[in-house]
């Protein structure tokens, strides 16, 4: 992975992205819809860093997600790799999304971050967003995490609805909560030690 050299900035309680990328700068210059989440998981920080540093991280995440589904149930979408650190998918409504991984690695002392730029289209039109996920050690057996989403609907009407009716804002905040819940479950499964092989009795 290419680690982009940058300095992490903070604004109040929010952590702003660290990637030096013009798409991130363009999104943050807008009046974005912001959603966030945070919590703790009973996982060693070193185990999270090891799991999230894997080159096949996407494949492992999708495999764990598939194992979480009920028998016969299909995932809402399957993410396909389309280039270096670039992915795409269509959901059940055939709405397209493109994901660009901008940063994955250490961001300061005792903090690991993954950052994405996402563009696509939903019921309200085209959008751009920046997603930042960070983890840090809490104690020997636990780690804390935080999620920040900065979303920018490109069309004027969705921005108006977001400001005055909250429709688009509720959509992004709901998706952030879903992502947070799913990510913590998958992370816990990814970091669980493999069950020891059982020797058949004679």
Account of the protein in words:
- The model is unreliable at 1-14 and 194-202 (pLDDT under 50).
- The longest helix has 24 residues, at 167-190.
- This protein has a single domain (19-190), classed as START domain (Alpha-D-Glucose-1,6-Bisphosphate, Chain A, domain 4).
- The chain has 202 residues and is α+β, with helices and mostly antiparallel strands.
- The chain is globular.
- Strand 1 (9-11) and strand 2 (14-16) form a beta hairpin.
- It starts with 8 loop residues before the first strand and ends in a 12-residue tail after the last helix.
- It has a seven-stranded antiparallel beta sheet, sandwiched between helices.
- It contains five helices and nine strands.
Low-confidence segments, given as residue ranges, are 1-14, 194-202
Q: What value does the Rg take, in angstroms? A: 18 Å
The name CATH uses for the topology is Alpha-D-Glucose-1,6-Bisphosphate, Chain A, domain 4
What is the subunit organization of this protein? single chain
Content of β-strand: 25-35%
What is the CATH first-level class name? Alpha Beta
Total number of domains: 1
Helix content: 25-40%
What is the rounded distance between the termini? 48 Å
Corresponding CATH superfamily: START domain
Structural class: alpha+beta
* Widest beta sheet: strand line-up: 3-9-8-7-6-5-4
Shape: globular
The description of the largest β-sheet is: 7 strands, antiparallel
What sequence of helices (H) and strands (E) makes up the elements? EEHEHHEEEEEEHH
Report the average pLDDT across residues: 80
Instruction: Give me the count of strands.
Output: 9
- Which architecture per CATH? 2-Layer Sandwich
The total of helices stands at 5
